[in-house]
Design brief:
Elements: E1 2-4, E2 9-14, H1 20-35, H2 41-58, E3 64-71, E4 74-81, H3 112-119, E5 122-128, E6 131-139, E7 143-148, E8 152-159, E9 162-166
Antiparallel strand pairs: 1-2, 2-3, 3-4, 4-6, 5-6, 7-8, 8-9
Helix pairs in contact: 1-2, 2-3
C-alpha cells in the first residue's frame, strides 16, 4: 500500500472502486502531515477526491495510484490511471473568455476539473508508461521549504524585520537545528 519514495514524497496504490475516494481523502491528509507540507489540507482533500473519483468513474483497469510530492514551488498531487486518454474538459480555458460549454448549473456532476483549475496554483495531465497522470499543485503559502539530506523538509517563515526558522525535523543529527 504505502511505498516511501524519498523524504519528500508518498506513492500509494488505491483500488479501482468507489472505496478509493474516502481512502484517498484520508491518505492525502496523512501524507501532508507526514511530509509536514505547508499546504491547505482541506483543499488538497477536495481536489484529490475529485481526481480519484474521475479515475474510478472514467477509466477501466485495476491500477490507480496517488502520488504526493513536496516541491520547492508547492505540494504536487498526482493520480495515475491506466488510460492514456486525456481527461475530458481539460481544453476549457480558465478564466472563461466567452460563454461556452460550461457545466449545467443543475447537473449533479461535471465541475471537478473546473474546481481543480480554480483552487490549485497549477494543474494538468501527462501520458505515462502505464497510462496517464492527472495532477494539481497547491502553493506553499509564504513558507520556504528546504530539504535536508538527513531529515527531510524544514520550514522557514519570513516575518517583517526578522527571519524566524521553525524546525519541523525531529532528527537529532539534523545539521539545520
Amino acid at each position: 500500500m504505502f511505498e516511501p519514495t524519498g523524504s519528500t514524497s508518498w506513492r500509494i496504490a488505491l483500488p479501482h472502486s468507489a472505496a478509493a475516494v474516502p481512502m484517498a481523502r484520508a491518505l492525502i491528509r496523512t501524507a501532508l502531515l507526514d511530509l509536514r507540507a505547508p499546504a491547505d489540507s482541506d483543499v488538497a482533500e477536495l481536489l484529490t477526491a475529485e481526481l480519484v473519483a474521475n479515475a474510478v468513474k472514467h477509466t477501466e483497469g485495476d491500477g490507480i495510484e496517488l502520488v504526493v510530492e513536496l516541491l520547492p514551488t508547492g505540494c504536487q498531487v498526482e493520480v495515475h490511471d491506466r488510460d492514456p486518454a486525456p481527461p475530458s474538459g481539460t481544453s476549457l480555458p480558465w478564466p472563461p473568455v466567452e460563454p461556452g460549454p460550461w457545466p449545467d448549473p443543475w447537473a449533479e456532476n461535471g465541475r471537478g476539473l473546473l474546481l481543480i483549475s480554480t483552487l490549485s496554483s497549477d494543474c494538468g495531465h501527462r501520458v505515462t508508461e502505464r497510462g496517464k497522470a492527472v495532477w494539481f499543485t497547491l502553493p506553499v503559502d509564504q513558507v520556504e521549504v528546504q530539504v535536508h539530506e538527513a531529515c527531510g523538509p524544514q520550514e522557514t517563515r519570513e516575518t517583517p524585520g526578522t527571519r524566524e526558522c521553525r524546525e519541523v525535523c525531529e532528527e537529532p543529527s539534523c545539521s539545520g537545528r
